[in-house]
From TrEMBL:
This is Dicarboxylate transporter 2. It comes from the Eukaryota. Its main location: plastid. The chain crosses the membrane at residues 99-116, 128-153, 173-192, 308-331, 361-378, 384-405, 417-441, 453-474, 486-507, 540-560. Keywords: Membrane, Plastid, Plastid inner membrane, Transmembrane, Transmembrane helix.
Length: 566
């Protein structure tokens, strides 16, 4: 969600600027100076002017070739009139769906429904829902409309065609996990609004910032610390860490869009960007897509006991190793020109002085988050569900005035998530109920058995395929909604232990957020800062994907064996 919205935003701004530049080159425009005071010859077209502002003004041209003293002159703007045959108004922006992506997305569903033979094991209702679901997924990739709007069209199609009843189609809107994701965005807003996240990160800069490498470690560790209580990687990037990096870079003479960016800013941005995936993978509540993964796993029958603790235990060792390795690897692979930053701790100290003592709202935010994390860890023992914990935390923030209801209403990403996540989760659940997922997993199992692959080999192949398919997606959560259930079913059919397969796919979902400049919300934030070039993003993203894969495969396999996951 958040990543898709940000990517769409950056894409639209590019298209608008491109359209404007094309318009400027479309027709020759006679250039006039912004104002003319002397030696102006009357233009034959001037008597035809009908601009109200010009008609209301006093005479502004003398019939002579030179001005007389005391004569009043009004500036003539080039935009006040147009030459015959010259168009000065750009074409209006395209409204509604983009034609080509719309046609392709619809064609996918029509082709599956009417031209692909239905397997005998699959009911007509299930096959029709699969066609609508695939058309919806194609639209998420091609973006004929915003994500929420396109998902609503898919929901409408499922009801109009009689594939799903109204209560069934809207059943996922009461899903607990989806509401937990929505509330998590409100928590993230509280961190930004109170300045608590900024304060925590600044303390780490003060303690570890004497060198560029130490500065990177300080920022990386501070994100890992606040991640479980700030469940939005995009909010952490744009609301906390990028402003700090920009301030440090500018103080070190490193400017975005300038060759000096390689002094400091490029390395800090790239390091934080690549580390953010492991921070998100470390905790269940560190990213919205983590929660969605576990819900989809539950739909297929993979239940993870004590999910917050189980998630953290399985991720802890490989994620910590990656967090420690990433700044150092990038220090060699993508080195900064400035190695020492002796002024950074002093700057952080000065900033903390300017921020003043911790405010009442920051204390409330700390207390609320400690309560929430404690209940997320131990709540099962008291019968308190994760979503109820989130509701309690949000209620405290509203009652004590840290957040107001306008803050919640203005968090558009949260409400957009509620809409399109619910549609995708609902469709995916019905595909499982109608037998499509079991049919697909059976086909995959038969194929894998024909190659005589052991489950560890099949596990590696499926995990790699799931990871690198993300080059086709501009949203982590969109990827989860589209492919997580199918890939989990394939893993199960290949004999992979259920909990291991579910968690590994979920961890990959956080890790592939740093593949490209469009792969996640934080990717758009960091790339948009102007400190990293596009070729570097792709090159470093691919190399670090391999580094993460090796660490998670080697460290994770021993660690997961020790934990009894297989």
């Amino acid at each position: 969600m958040e990543s898709f919205a940000l990517h769409s935003l950056s894409t639209s701004s590019f298209s608008l600027s491109s359209r404007a530049s094309l318009f400027r080159r479309s027709k020759p425009i006679i250039k006039s100076p912004p104002s003319i005071h002397h030696n102006l010859k009357p233009s034959p077209s001037l008597p035809t002017l009908r601009s109200p502002s010009l008609l209301a003004s006093k005479p502004f041209i003398s019939s002579s070739h030179s001005s007389k003293p005391g004569k009043t002159h009004f500036p003539i703007q080039a935009s006040k009139y147009e030459e015959p045959g010259t168009t000065l108004t750009p074409p209006p922006p395209l409204q509604g769906a983009k034609p080509i992506p719309f046609i392709i997305s619809i064609a996918v569903g029509i082709a599956v429904r009417f031209f692909v033979p239905k397997p005998v094991e699959v009911t007509p209702q299930a096959w029709q829902l699969l066609a609508i679901f695939l058309s919806t997924i194609a639209g998420l990739i091609l973006s004929p409309l915003p994500v929420g709007a396109w998902a609503f069209l898919g929901l409408t199609a499922s009801i109009v065609t009689g594939t799903l009843s109204f209560p069934t189609a809207f059943g996922a809107f009461t899903n607990e996990v989806i509401w937990l994701i929505v509330i998590s965005f409100f928590f993230a807003r509280g961190f930004v609004k109170t300045g608590l996240g900024d304060r925590i990160a600044t303390y780490f800069v003060k303690w570890l910032g004497k060198s560029t490498l130490g500065l990177s470690y300080g920022l990386t560790l501070s994100e890992a610390l606040i991640a479980p209580a700030m469940p939005s990687t995009t909010a952490r990037a744009g609301g906390v860490f990028l402003p700090i990096i920009q301030s440090l870079s500018l103080s070190g003479g490193s400017k975005s869009g300038d060759p000096s960016k390689r002094k400091l800013g490029s390395y800090l941005v790239m390091s934080q960007f690549q580390s953010s995936g492991n921070s998100s993978a470390l905790f269940l509540t560190a990213a919205a897509q983590n929660l969605l993964c576990l819900k989809l796993a539950e739909e297929i029958g993979v239940i993870i006991p004590s999910p917050w603790v189980s998630w953290f235990m399985a991720a802890s060792l490989p994620a910590f190793v990656c967090l420690l390795a990433t700044p150092l690897v990038l220090y060699k692979l993508f080195p900064p020109e400035t190695k020492d930053t002796p002024d950074a701790p002093a700057m952080a100290t000065k900033k903390l002085e300017n921020m003043g003592p911790i405010t009442k709202n920051e204390f409330i935010m700390v207390g609320t988050m400690l309560l929430a994390v404690s209940l997320w860890v131990f709540g099962d023992a008291f019968g308190i569900a994760s979503v109820v914990t989130a509701m309690i935390g949000l209620s405290i923030l509203l009652l004590l005035g840290v957040l107001d209801w306008d803050d919640c209403l203005s968090e558009k990403s949260a409400w957009d998530t509620l809409a399109w996540f619910s549609v995708l989760v609902g469709m995916a659940g019905q595909l499982t109920n109608l037998g499509i997922v079991n049919w697909m997993s059976g086909c995959v199992a038969t194929t894998l058995q024909s190659y005589s692959l052991s489950w560890p080999v099949a596990f590696g192949v499926l995990q790699a395929a799931y990871f690198f398919i993300h080059y086709l997606f501009a949203s982590q959560t969109g990827h989860v909604g589209a492919l997580y259930s199918a890939f989990l079913a394939m893993n199960l059919a290949a004999g992979v232990p259920g909990v291991l397969a579910a968690l590994a796919l979920a961890y990959n979902t956080s890790l592939f957020g740093a593949l490209t400049h469009y792969s996640s919300g934080q990717a758009a934030v960091y790339y948009g800062a102007g400190y990293v070039d596009l070729p570097d993003v792709f090159k470093v993203g691919f190399v670090m994907a391999l580094v993460n894969a090796v660490i998670w495969a080697i460290v994770g396999s021993f660690w997961w064996k020790f934990l009894g996951l297989y």
